[in-house]
């Protein structure tokens, strides 16, 4: 009987629900004989990657120590090993794969899913078995069953695996070498920190840093505008001249030239009214949903991905595959959406007569859909009770997705835009106004939040003026100051990464490369890259505003001028990777090019960093020696899940059961005080630490740390 290999337990459970109830064994499920599998099937799963690249020390013992003389570390052959944390499940999967006569790959339908599956299969010694591929966009029972009835030949997806493995190996080469290189070089300059460097995260950091420098180096300059308040028998309105003036005297000279007093007379010279229509927005890709959720709800991109993934996964299965870069659907999806239109309307409480029930190419275009289509609701329409059981963040994101689909059937937003020119003694004043005629699709998004934001951006409503109308004009000169660029919000980082070519003005070739590659990273990886930058303490997010830390600034200075600092390098890499996925380029060529780049970096960086002027002032003290093996050992049993162990992470202590849902973490620094492993051990095992001296509040204070409901609180001497 065939073995079905899913990516994770929740995915396997969703697949199993599409078939007659089977018997659950340790690490797999037996699917009984049915119409799809006449002889039954065995359904097993990974826990993400069961197989990973070996660490440097597992190739060469001398690579265990961080030493410049050992760089670059480039193995002749890259080798994989079962992950220590999930080795038990790997043994189960390996036995099933070795015993079966057919394998069905049923991991996520993308390059990383292909990599997970084939890495497991090849490492299990089952690479020569007949293999087919499940390719679906929804975990609903009907879609799952249909997908298994229409399995694809797995050979057509091998290039996706080659693409993903080229990415995985090259990231290892750059990350392992460049991180050690810059950490050791900066250590010589007195900077006792560990610097993680990567081919995507580092140019992303550099772009954020460049915006921050623009803001810091910006010098506000005054400018002056000539404005007027006009009063007519039809009503009042404001206007201003088109030109900005550098000085108040320059603006005053213009008024004097025309003989204009502070109170004067004007006449409406021209009135142009144009009818405007705005089509409903496109359907959501992951990045558009992340950008919207950050702007509207202040969710971080990684939180939005986590939410939409939970709506996709078992048991909810309310939305389609989330990691998509497409904003179109095919006629098949449109058919069921149209059929469920009334149900979706009732769900949101927005009942309206559709403008059309025909598919529009703006949303429905089979030629624009490659691997996945836009994020849309599934055929499964939840009951009111089911909706109430969702968390608030799940409801928010689900309704945004449903409303984006409803908007597809709604009317255009219509308004009149009026442009008025008022003449005051030969000087033209310009006014612009807007009158809404039909809310159309906008009524779907008329929440209190959006109405308030729209109100700030609305053009004023002008009175019904006409050509020749006389007006009293009250003239004044208004001083303004030029404003610096705004810092990025966390949601804007997604768009910045995707459209970073737009910030390059002088190099058309580079701009074209970035546009073709769709910027830095991929739809599925961008939120993870931002999360990594935060975790590595290169950036921080306060009130949704992103800023680069002192540590981030030092790394940006260190890589200045290298290809690691340039987004076009990453874009070219992504384009090459895509070509591998399309069968137009070779994996080994990409890896060889990466190795050559890394060797060159190792040769050139020491001289560049040596001339660098950096200071450790303002950096937090390094709390641990990165060379110590004990840094990775278990500290204590996790107090939350009672299954995993609390271990060192890069900038915090966390549970080894993270991938299985345990989110227990502890900060390594609390109010300027470093928290040691032994104190974490006390906290986990006894529920409190001994008295810790030197916390930095408004003044220094001493306290114990206590664990209540898996959260850390202070206990003060007077209360113990």
Summarize the structure.
This protein has 720 residues and is an alpha+beta fold. It is built from 21 helices and 26 strands. Helix 9 crosses helix 13.
Secondary-structure blueprint of this entry?
Blueprint: E1 3-6, H1 9-16, E2 23-25, E3 28-31, E4 41-45, E5 51-53, E6 80-82, H2 87-99, E7 103-106, H3 111-123, E8 131-133, H4 141-149, E9 152-153, H5 158-188, H6 201-217, E10 222-232, E11 235-240, H7 248-257, E12 263-278, H8 286-297, H9 301-312, H10 331-339, H11 341-348, H12 384-389, H13 392-407, E13 413-424, E14 427-438, H14 448-457, E15 470-481, H15 490-498, H16 508-516, H17 526-535, E16 539-542, E17 545-548, H18 550-559, H19 567-581, H20 587-610, E18 636-637, E19 645-648, E20 652-655, E21 665-667, E22 669-670, E23 673-674, H21 677-686, E24 692-696, E25 700-708, E26 711-715
Parallel strand pairs: 1-4, 1-7, 7-8
Antiparallel strand pairs: 2-3, 3-4, 5-6, 8-9, 10-11, 10-15, 12-13, 12-15, 13-14, 16-17, 18-19, 19-20, 20-21, 22-23, 24-25, 25-26
């Amino acid at each position: 009987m065939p073995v079905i290999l899913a990516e994770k337990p929740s995915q396997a459970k969703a697949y199993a629900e599409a078939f007659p109830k089977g018997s659950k064994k340790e690490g797999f499920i037996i699917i009984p004989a049915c119409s799809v599998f006449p002889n039954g099937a065995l359904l097993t799963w990974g826990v993400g990657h069961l197989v990973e690249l070996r660490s440097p020390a597992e190739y060469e013992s001398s690579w265990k120590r961080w030493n410049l003389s050992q760089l670059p570390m480039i193995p002749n052959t890259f080798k994989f090993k079962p992950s220590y944390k999930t080795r038990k499940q790997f043994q189960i999967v390996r036995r099933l794969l070795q015993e079966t006569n057919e394998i069905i790959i049923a991991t996520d339908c993308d390059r990383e899913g292909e990599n997970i599956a084939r890495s497991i299969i090849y490492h299990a010694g089952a690479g020569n078995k007949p293999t087919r591929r499940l390719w679906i966009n929804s975990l609903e029972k009907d879609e799952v069953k249909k997908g298994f009835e229409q399995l694809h030949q797995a050979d057509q997806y091998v290039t996706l695996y080659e693409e993903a493995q080229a990415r995985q190996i090259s990231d290892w080469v750059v990350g392992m070498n460049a991180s050690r290189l810059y950490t050791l070089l900066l250590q010589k300059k007195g900077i006792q920190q560990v610097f993680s460097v990567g081919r995507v995260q580092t140019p992303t950091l550099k772009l954020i840093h460049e915006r921050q420098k623009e803001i810091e180096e910006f010098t506000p300059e005054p400018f002056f505008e000539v404005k007027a308040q006009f009063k007519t028998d039809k009503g009042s309105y404001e206007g201003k001249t088109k030109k900005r003036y550098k000085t108040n005297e320059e603006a005053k000279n213009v008024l004097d030239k025309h003989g204009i007093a502070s109170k004067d007379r004007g006449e409406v010279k021209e009135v142009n009214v144009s009818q405007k229509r705005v089509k409903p927005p496109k359907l959501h890709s992951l990045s558009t949903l992340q950008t919207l959720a950050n702007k509207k709800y202040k969710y971080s991109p990684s939180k939005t991905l986590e939410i939409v993934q939970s709506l996709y996964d078992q048991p909810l299965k309310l939305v389609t595959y989330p990691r998509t870069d497409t904003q179109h659907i095919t006629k098949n999806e449109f058919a069921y959406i149209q059929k469920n239109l009334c149900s979706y309307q009732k769900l949101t409480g927005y009942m309206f007569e559709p403008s059309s029930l025909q598919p529009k190419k703006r949303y429905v275009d089979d030629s624009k859909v490659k691997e996945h289509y836009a994020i849309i609701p599934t055929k499964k329409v939840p009951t009111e009770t089911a909706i109430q059981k969702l968390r608030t963040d799940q409801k928010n994101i689900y309704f945004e997705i449903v409303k984006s689909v409803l908007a597809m059937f709604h009317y255009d937003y219509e308004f009149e835009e009026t442009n008025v020119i008022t003449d005051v003694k030969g000087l033209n004043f310009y006014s612009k106004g807007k009158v809404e005629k039909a809310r159309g699709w906008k009524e779907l998004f008329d929440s209190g939040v959006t109405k308030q934001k729209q109100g700030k951006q609305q053009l004023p409503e002008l009175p019904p003026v006409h050509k020749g109308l006389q007006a009293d004009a009250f003239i004044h000169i208004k001083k303004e100051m030029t404003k610096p660029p705004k810092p990025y919000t966390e949601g804007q980082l997604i768009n910045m990464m995707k459209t970073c070519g737009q910030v390059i003005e002088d190099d058309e070739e580079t701009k074209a490369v970035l546009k073709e590659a769709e910027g830095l990273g991929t739809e599925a990886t961008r939120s993870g890259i931002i999360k990594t930058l935060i975790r590595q303490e290169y950036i921080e997010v306060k009130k949704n505003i992103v800023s680069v830390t002192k540590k981030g600034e030092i790394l940006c200075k260190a890589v200045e001028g290298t290809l690691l600092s340039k987004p076009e390098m990453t874009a070219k890499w992504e384009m090459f990777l895509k070509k591998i996925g399309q069968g137009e380029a070779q994996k080994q060529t990409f890896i060889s090019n990466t190795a050559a780049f890394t060797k060159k970096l190792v040769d050139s960086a020491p001289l560049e960093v040596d001339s660098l002027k950096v200071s450790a002032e303002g950096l937090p003290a390094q709390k641990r020696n990165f060379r110590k093996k004990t840094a990775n050992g278990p500290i204590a049993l996790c107090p939350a899940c009672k299954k995993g162990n609390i271990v060192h992470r890069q900038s915090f202590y966390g549970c080894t059961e993270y991938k299985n849902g345990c989110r227990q973490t502890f900060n390594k620094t609390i109010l300027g005080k470093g928290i040691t492993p032994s104190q974490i051990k006390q906290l986990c095992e006894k529920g409190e630490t001994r008295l810790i001296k030197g916390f930095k509040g408004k003044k220094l204070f001493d306290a114990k740390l206590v664990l209540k409901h898996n959260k850390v609180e202070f206990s003060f001497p007077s209360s113990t």
